[in-house]
Amino acid sequence: MSVRSALSGLPLKAAAPMLLDMAAPVVSFYVLHMALGVAPVPALAAGAVVAGARTAWRGVRERRLNAFTAMTILMLLATLALVGITGDPRLIIAKSAVMPAVGGAYGLLTHFFGRTLVGEVAAPFVTKGDPALRAAWDDCFDREPAFARRLRLINLLWGVGFLASAVARVVVIYSVPLDLAVPLGQLPTLLTLVVLIVATVRLSPPMGAALRARAAAAVEPEPRVLVAA
Hints:
Elements: H1 3-35, H2 40-61, H3 67-86, H4 90-95, H5 98-112, H6 117-127, H7 131-143, H8 145-173, H9 178-184, H10 187-203, H11 205-219
Helix pairs in contact: 1-2, 1-6, 1-10, 1-11, 2-3, 5-8, 6-7, 7-8, 7-11, 8-10
């Protein structure tokens, strides 16, 4: 995979787990509640449990429990406990707004401090464990102002977009009847993801060109010097 195609495909790959987690409660609601007559709370909870189990299984399969996996599982358990106490099924679909809100806030923080959240997510995917490419990525960030500015711009867009979509999602969920809140509550996140993915794809080509040029320069052999006899 080329650097350019890796950068272009990254946003969709990164968003895939979120899209799956969003889809699970919607599918379970319509299948169990609308089609089979199961009460809204267990119908939505079933989808949330499936999404949480997928996250847990991924951690077991990869033999690592990172902060994201742990937070997702703890948030699921806390949400189910709150739903059991309050009986409010909207909490289950509003739960998925927490992770984008946390990610957006953290992304905005790294825009001003550190090497940006988007950069830390993108670098391993783009460099594929290649030490030369990873060194070229770090070198571009440190020595190519245009590369760093564009990466920070993408990071800013994702941070603001995730925060705005999380707020809009909660507003929609608690403003319409439950049958409409389940599908319509997904729209702010879906629309935001489409805009962010398109913007990232449009902004990333110059970054890929700079990274390829930096990596190529690092592997060029030193010029041979002929010494007269």
